[in-house]
Amino acid sequence: TSNVLAGFGTTIFEVMSKLAIEHQAINLGQGFPDQDGPADIRAVAAREGEEGPNQYPPMMGVPELRQAVAEHDSRFYGLSVNWQTDVLVTSGATESLAASMLGLINPGDEVVLFEPLYDCYLPMIKLAGGIPKFVRLDPPNWEIDESKLRAAFSDKTKLILMNSPMNPTGKVFSREELELIAELAIKHDTYAICDEVYEHIVFGDRKHLSLLTLPGMGERTARIASAGKTFSLTGWKVGYLTATAELTSRIAKAHQFLTFTTAPNLQKAVAYGLAKEDAFYEDLKNSMQSKRDRFRDGLQRIGFTTADCDGTYFINADISSIGFDGTDEEFCRLITTEAGVAAVPFSAFYQSEGARTNFARFCFCKRDEVLDAAIEKLQDFF
Ligand code: PMP
Ligand code: GLN
């Protein structure tokens, strides 16, 4: 194992999914929907696969998908995107993230990022030789401490990596918070990589704002999204990135040596999907919101306090609120093996010492009857 990767174990998502399967537990750990996305999108993939060609598509992505991404970004964010130069298709958002780190960071460069953080961020930064500078967000509102964020930036900062709507907190960054990030990125002349895979899964009157749209940020920001989340097709691993031509080409330089390209029939099907009518996007949001409400109410009936959740697939339950005094890891193992419900321990998303990690992350993008069954099992156990 390389020295960098020796410091990391098996990803928590795999660990908890395996444990869930072993114990036949309802898997509310790893984030994936239990119903596949729209049948018409899957039919396009089947037809395109049948008709072909099934050979290497262009390195930047099939024209149909790049055009659809440009159209999507104009429709939802008012962005003016040149599909030929400003869009890159990758194998999942994960590859966009990896290509961004490998394409932009030099060994010794500092990278500002928020904790809790999504599992692949830190290893990717380290593989690229970057030095992480963490800014911790704490429950229940996950607010940014302005002075801590200011202090994390220096003249060595190469980029800030952020995620909104944010996994695992369910936080949606406000305009003020994005303005503060923009001010610091501009002041220190850094890049910003914004992971927006949950852009269409935002609740109530909260609205997703892309950092890319803020004044002065267009030239330095790459926005990353994923068909996995928007179309409930997480196994397809089709992601896309929008940035200026210059920034896109720097990132594409790494992409060409990582995967080079992504399955053409899936790309065409996602292009078809992105053009779906507003009602599709409304339904996605409303359905996820009602699942959040249903599951949150269930947790609260059992006696759990839950942290705020304005977006994503995830809600966090405070395990101390029902008098559990072990670690979150013990809690998640216990409920998986004994109650028959799997969750992810929040501590898996923190690196620094002293964080409050008495939370279990539950994934609620499941059929209502599955959510109800999980609540019933937890209720019986506690
Ligand atoms: N970023 C975040 C915040 C995620 O939660 C996920 C996956 N769930 C990804 C990136 C990876 O997306 P993809 O599956 O498209 O690679
Ligand atoms: N993003 C998903 C989660 O947070 C998992 C993706 C994966 O398993 N790599 O649960």
Task: Map the helices and strands.
Elements lengths: L2 H4 L5 H11 L3 E2 L11 H13 L11 H15 L9 E4 L1 H13 L5 E6 L5 H7 L3 E6 L9 H7 L4 E7 L11 H13 L3 E5 L25 E6 H4 L8 E4 L2 H14 L5 H11 L3 H25 L2 E2 L7 E5 L9 H12 L1 E2 L1 E2 L13 E5 L4 H14 L1
The chain binds 4'-deoxy-4'-aminopyridoxal-5'-phosphate and glutamine (GLN).
The site of 4'-deoxy-4'-aminopyridoxal-5'-phosphate has 14 residues, from helix 5.
Q: So what's the CATH class of the largest domain?
A: Alpha Beta
Looking at the structure, the CATH topology of the largest domain is Aspartate Aminotransferase, domain 2
How many separate domains?
A: 2
CATH architectural group of the largest domain: 3-Layer(aba) Sandwich
CATH H-level superfamily title of the largest domain: Type I PLP-dependent aspartate aminotransferase-like (Major domain)
Question: Which compounds are bound in this model?
Answer: 4'-deoxy-4'-aminopyridoxal-5'-phosphate, glutamine
Q: Work out the helicity level.
A: 40-55%
Q: Could you state the order of secondary-structure elements as H and E? A: HHEHHEHEHEHEHEEHEHHHEEHEEEH
Main sheet makeup = 7 strands, mixed
Query: What Rg, in angstroms, do the CA atoms define?
Result: 20 Å
Proportion of β residues? Answer: 5-15%
Q: DSSP helix count? A: 14
Spatial order of strands in the largest sheet:
2-8-7-6-5-3-4
The SS-based structural class is alpha/beta
Total DSSP E strands = 13
Low-confidence stretches: none
